[in-house]
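Handout, section B. The chain below has 227 residues.
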Amino acid sequence: MADRQLSFPEAVIFDMDGTLFQTETLLTVVHDRLFQQLREEGLYTKETPPVEALLSCLGMLLKDIWFRVIPDGTPEVHQRADELMLELELEEIAASRGNLYPYVPETLKALKDKGIKLFVASNGLQDYVEAIALHRTIDKLFDGLYTAGGRSTATKVELVRILLEEHGIKSAWMVGDRSSDVEAGKGNGLEVIGCGYAAFGKPDELEGSDVIITDFRELLDLLPKQG
């Protein structure tokens, strides 16, 4: 916990993967299906990389992920992997594969009931983020779902800046599990809450956060009592 008191936020901005959504519960299946399909199409001939390689890239822009997971892949392979990733993710999400972290819906509702605006800012694709929110029935709690795919932004700092400007937000918390979330918050003058409960990420991933939580419900405890 931070020594200093956090301010009462006008809005809370959440990352999606590793923050609201327990991504490994979806990607384990998607990962295997994706590489099997690439092999069937003659685009990939090696053994399937470990799913941990993909999970370690979460928070990065999709175009950068494949350079890490399939470093020797051609642009054609990377493009097809992009297409398959979204297609398979949407199929599995619609089939109820993939879980939110514990206490996410009720905590979001409690924040909303206090008059706080809620947003998502993700480096993922718009259709993917919207599908999670819709099929996990948390979509009505958000005032906006912002994605790098939907806004063609090069960094999350830029994405969050656009969100704040469009909604006239002056004070907010940025909540996420990756260094890109810390950068996005600090780069826009926000207080940052790091999520230390994700199963992936580097030990120093959340360095610079004002607070690190290990349970999603702790967000409610961080609200100033006078708020």
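Note. The chain has two domains: 11-22+99-221, 24-94. Compare this with the example in section A.
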